[in-house]
Design goal:
By secondary structure, the protein is an alpha/beta fold. The chain is built from 12 helices and 24 strands.
């Protein structure tokens, strides 16, 4: 197969023009092209207003050897792709079906691969099915009535279900797990464009259906999925896992288990405490906290694409970073073009926010988290659960300041440390009630100052980013897990049969990386055990 890189066309090009460009690049006629596949598509906006779509294209042609022999362009090459292969090499008999706790991306993809290859996994999810959960979340946003185990953080699909559904990752991937994740998403209803978009996303409205379809396949392949079923205890004897305790319908049930995947998510604070009490190896890790920042989406479009550009382009995104003189780094995270800020709380008396987009990304505002890294030095303890307590204290302040609603402040007032009394040109786009307040009061002075300096510095990258009318809301505290559950090279806790997995265990930072980690754990189980004999 021939791969063409750096193939550039005007954004309003036709399929015919793409075909013509490929033929011209390869010095062949269009009739000699047997097949083509877009491998990557991005936008080059460095020379505004002269914008270009940039493609990497795989092409099958007649007489490939002859065509490649006469090529002089270094953007043309021969490629041979090796598809991802899941191997069941294990010889040991597994006495009990593997158990996966949590059905976020890590748990779901681990279960999906295991079920597909005959391991009949059992999933226990503390929250509700994605259908029931969607209703619970909408009710919370409309009424403020929070269900502690069915909310933006907990339930089928994990926290990523109510997000933008971004699928880009920086994880190195020599064996093709990233591509496999995208292919599984497409197989279950995601748009095919995610296979080649430079920064693919799905959107909450489509993710809900994808998650349901994946669950149905897991069940068809012999797996089980149990909702409203929370892990509350486990027993390790002589270095090996023996049993787990599941709370469901106010009843505790003991299950014999030798293979347990802990895909509990970054907000399972009660489970972290249980693991600590069981003396499992937990370690405090760095994470980040900050605010959600909102701008008019047209401000971001104008900055990224140039004002009055004539093309119909995807809603513009951005990524900004700054290294401050005080030694701290401030950066954007989980940017949601045309999206909404959402009340993402999961504990009574605590308030956290996140960002969400639908697939169309057609909301009036753009939002992203602007966050600053915090370390154990910031919360004054190396205790494994100290970061959890630090998050919780910020969330309690946010809840108190907003009296249960999302506190909102204009950036100009944030700089003055004054509560906002009146909004400017931007109206917050928030799922859930909000109230004008002083968001700065949520943070210790050193973090608040870093957020202010960071946002001001970003104005040099995106004009208008630090306008006085820019909207801030808080607190963005659930960017990643504050703990790491330590595992060995076999991805287990000291060969106990317990596999910490995904973002909650400290080994991922988003939907795709969590899903890839779930696949890695499934591979490790399949290397040790033969498929389950029903």
């Amino acid at each position: 197969m021939i791969r063409i890189g750096q193939l550039k066309l005007q954004p309003n090009h036709s399929e015919k023009e793409l075909l013509q460009k490929i033929a011209k690049t390869l010095h062949i006629s269009e009739n000699e092209i047997v097949n083509l596949q877009i491998k990557k598509q991005s936008i080059d906006a460095r020379k505004k207003p002269d914008l270009k779509y940039v493609y990497t294209i795989d092409v099958t042609v007649q007489n490939e050897a002859h065509v490649i022999k006469k090529q002089k362009e270094n953007t043309v090459s021969i490629v041979k792709e090796s598809p991802y292969i899941f191997q069941t090499l294990g010889q040991n008999n597994i006495k009990h079906r593997p158990v996966i706790v949590g059905s976020g991306p890590a748990g779901m993809f681990c279960s999906y691969l295991l079920a597909q290859h005959g391991y009949c996994p059992i999933i226990f999810e503390r929250g509700a099915s994605v259908e029931e959960r969607t209703k619970d979340v909408e009710e919370f946003w409309n009424s403020g009535k929070l269900k502690l185990n069915s909310n933006v953080q907990f339930g089928e699909g994990g926290a990523g279900t109510f997000s933008d559904g971004k699928l880009n990752t920086l994880v190195k991937d020599p064996v093709g797990r990233n591509r496999k994740v995208l292919e599984i998403f497409v197989e279950n209803g995601a748009p095919e464009e995610i296979l080649y978009m430079n920064k693919p996303h799905i959107g909450t409205d489509i993710l809900v259906n994808v998650v349901r379809n994946m669950r149905e396949k897991i069940i068809t392949w012999g797996g089980e999925v149990h909702f409203h079923s929370q892990l509350t205890d486990l027993e390790v004897l002589n270095g090996e896992l023996q049993t787990i305790t599941i709370m469901s319908n106010n009843q505790k049930t003991l299950y014999p288990v030798e293979t347990l995947v802990l895909a509990i998510g970054h907000s399972a604070r009660d489970t972290f405490s249980m693991l600590y009490d069981k003396k499992l190896p937990l370690k405090a890790k760095s994470f980040a906290v900050g605010v959600r920042v909102e701008h008019k989406q047209r401000t971001i479009n104008d900055s990224q694409y140039g004002k009055n550009n004539p093309y119909h382009l995807p809603t513009a995104a951005y990524k900004v970073t700054a290294n401050l003189e005080n030694g701290r780094g401030v950066y954007s995270f989980c940017m949601c073009p045309g999206g909404y800020v959402v009340n993402a709380s999961s504990e009574e008396g605590c308030l956290a926010v996140n960002g969400m987009s639908y697939h169309a990304r057609d909301g009036e505002n753009a939002n992203s988290a602007i966050i600053v890294t915090v370390t154990p030095e910031d919360y004054g303890s190396v205790h494994p659960l100290a970061g959890v307590q630090f998050q919780r204290e910020l969330e309690k302040r946010a809840y108190k300041i907003g009296q249960g609603a999302v506190p909102v402040q204009c950036f100009g007032d944030f700089c003055k440390n004054e509560p906002t009394k009146e909004l400017g040109a931007i109206t917050p786009q928030i799922k859930g009630a909000y109230v004008l307040a002083n968001v700065r009061e949520i943070f210790p002075d050193n973090l608040a100052e870093s957020l202010e300096l960071g946002i001001k510095s970003f104005d040099r990258q995106i004009q208008g980013f630090a306008n006085a009318d820019t909207i801030l809301s808080g607190v963005e505290s659930r960017t990643s897990s504050p703990i790491r559950v330590e595992r060995n090279d076999m991805l287990q806790i000291e060969n106990t049969g317990i596999y910490p997995c995904g973002e909650g265990a400290g080994y991922a930072g988003g939907i795709t990386s969590a899903a890839m980690d779930g696949i890695k754990v499934a591979e490790m189980i399949a290397q040790k055990y033969a498929p389950f004999d029903r």
